[in-house]
Design brief:
The chain is an alpha+beta fold. It is built from 6 helices and 11 strands. β6 and β7 form a beta hairpin. α1 crosses α3, α1 crosses α4 and α5 runs antiparallel to α6.
Amino acid sequence: MRYKKHGWPQEDEIVLCTVTNVQYNSVFCTLDEYDQNGKPPSGMIHISEVSAGRIRNIREFVSEGKKVACKILKVDRERGHIDLSLRRVGEGQRRDKNLTLKQEQKAENILEHLAKEHKKDPAEFYDQVAPAILEHYEYIFMAFEDIVEDKFSLKDTSLDAKIAKMIEDTVKEKIKPKQVQIEGIFSITTYAENGVAKVRDALIKASEAANKSDIRYLGAGKYKITVIAEEFKDAEKLLKSATDAFDKSFKGDAFAEVGFERIEVKK
């Protein structure tokens, strides 16, 4: 990955590291995202920060060449020393860090594709483009996401207008807008003579209330609703509008039994 930060990391920051040397009571790593005078800085994980509890063999947890997400504990700029922790990084933080770098790699791949398509050196093209974007964002992919959402334009940077347009057109072609999807299941049992028509009308109203969300029949009086929005809170509001409209359709109906169950989506 070409992306590099310059200077020193901040305490409590989560960084991606490569294990370079494993000793009896300590692990030495390089900080992959940082660059100091042309090479990544190094840090150390004390054995007590590798894992909670007693460690019999440190190599059961780390080995040379392994990529690990670490937390910055302390930075001593005078000594050039960085203390790291492996055990203080939660699974969610590790997953988020890996996702961030995966997205940044995707952004770099887009720039590399453009460079090759226009017969430019990928490294030189990246060095030309990246600084102009990173003046505004911590990561290039963040800028690309906002470009897709029309929240940011490369025309507002120091980039040449033709290059800016070329990048924006490709980004909008390659990256889909961010979306949040939530789901639930309506259950309906009705003994009314016009029950089928009433169920159909209730589902239509629920779909329209949730911005024409998708509702599909699952069988045995169950219908799955899928709501899509840009933000989670917006999706929740739409889902509530749908359930409210659905419930209202059967309010006071002694011949109907209705229910709703939220589907937990794995992240």
